[in-house]
Amino acid sequence: SAADKGGWSSFMAKEVSEEPEAVANTIRGRVRDGQIVVPELDGLDELFTSITRIIVVACGTAAYAGLVGKYAIEQWARVPVDVELAHEFRYRDPVIGPDTLVVSISQSGETMDTLMAVKYARERGAKTLSICNTQGATIPRESDAIVYTHAGPEVAVASTKAFVAQITALYLFGLHLGRVRGSLPETEAAEHVRELEAIPTKIQQILDREQSRIDQFAHWMADTRSVLFLGRHVGYPIALEGALKLKELAYIHAEGFAAGELKHGPIALIEPGQPVFVIVPSPRESAELHKKVVSNIQEIRARGARVIVIAEEGDAAVLPFADEVLRIPLAGPLFEPLLAVVPLHIFAMGLSTAKGLDVDQPRNLAKSVTVE
Ligand code: G6P
Q1: Distance in Å, CA 109 to ligand 1 centroid
Q2: 194-200: which pairs have CB atoms within 8 A and are 24 or more residues apart?
Q3: Residue 365 CA, ligand 1 centroid: distance in Å
Q4: 333 phi/psi in degrees, rounded to 5
Q5: Which of 246, 285, 339, 343 has a 20 to 30 A CA-CA distance from 331?
Q6: ipTM of the prediction
Q7: Beta bridge partners of 324
Q8: Cα–Cα distances in Å, from 209 out to 80, 168, 215?
């Protein structure tokens, strides 16, 4: 049954191994002739052309998926997108109305903070779209439109495969919106669809090639007291997600930063031996950002940081400054987060296991937080 570990050491190990399928199943049935066709969004063209802004509301890992989605939706659909923690949203009298689409993201569909944000948005006249992994849950039932993620049941408390499925669903929505609003040329959209369809195989390659090495250095790092994560552009929310997973699973102090912010504060934290994960943008696709992040790596390395780099295959510029290099297959700039997060999920799980902790049921946490 789906609630079985199926030979894996933990539900999370099983669920991380299912990240390729989570993406593939979320895309399935939603591409026709190389273009995105989301049947659930049929008949909503008028709504999607009339909105002037989008606010994404979510908690935890789902909110980081929202932050990734913001980059893609703004680029493709040219609608301003804000991402807000659901519990902050409704207590500040936000400026919303009929021209606002509030997109909620929730694996369980039962998170009380997110549900209350959705209800509040509706009361204020906003339109609501739910991205949810659980058929018939409360949040989708309270929403005007639904795009389900098809990650399958997620049992481990901390979210992994649902995260990649949430990004996938946001991308399907962004491509759909770009077409409906006429802001995304068909040829460009078709290229993005091809990119998205190639993601499951690329995630599988990471699992096949890097898992044992990541487990090994997670083991070496079992005594580490603090880990930092740096990323830029769509790599920034991935840095936040990498840090959250480490807190949740390994009870280690961890923080994610926007790499550009380093010199404005976080660099003061760097001392000899400090482990820092750096998510490096593609040198082919984002040459300018790549250069800036490589120079960040040089700066922290010069101060003694132990640098673990997540970089595209063939990126040689990172080699002189990295203690470890984890490779991800080539992908367009907006698609890298779906790959870069995989080594971070493996690492957090590996470190938790190395410390002898329960990866599926971390202390103090609940899978679905149904109180405010
Ligand atoms: C809890 C879980 C997290 C999850 C968050 C949001 O805090 O421990 O893993 O990201 O809730 O859950 P949701 O079901 O709304 O996605």
Answers
A1: 9
A2: 194/34, 195/331, 195/332, 195/335, 196/23, 196/27, 196/168, 196/171, 196/172, 196/335, 197/27, 197/31, 198/331, 199/20, 199/23, 199/168, 199/331, 199/335, 199/338, 199/339, 200/20, 200/21, 200/23, 200/24
A3: 9
A4: -55, -40
A5: 246
A6: 0.95
A7: 308
A8: 38, 23, 12
Distance 153 CA to ligand 1 centre (A): 13
Please write the tens of the pLDDT for every residue from 196-253: 999 999 999 999 999 999 999 899 999 999 999 999 999 999 999 999 999 999 999 9
The model's pLDDT over 130-171, given as tens digits with 9 standing for 90+, comes to 999 999 999 999 999 999 999 999 999 999 999 999 999 999
- Structure confidence by residue, pLDDT tens digits, 324-371: 999 999 999 999 999 999 999 999 999 999 999 999 999 999 998 998
Q: Whose CA is nearest to atom 2 of ligand 1?
A: 367
**367 alpha carbon – ligand 1 mean position (Å):** 6
**Amino acid 3: pLDDT:** 65
Residues with CB under 6 A from ligand 1: 59-62, 106-108, 111, 114, 157-159, 365, 367-369
Q: Which two tokens stand for residue 104?
A: 């909620």
Closest ligand 1 atom number to CA of residue 166: 16
Tokens matching residue 78: 């040219």
Q: Which residue type, as a one-letter code, is found at position 1?
A: S
Pocket test for ligand 1, best of 11, 15, 16, 59 (most atoms within 8 A of CB): 59
Ligand 1 mean position to 207 CA, how many Å?
24
Structure tokens at 301: 């390395």
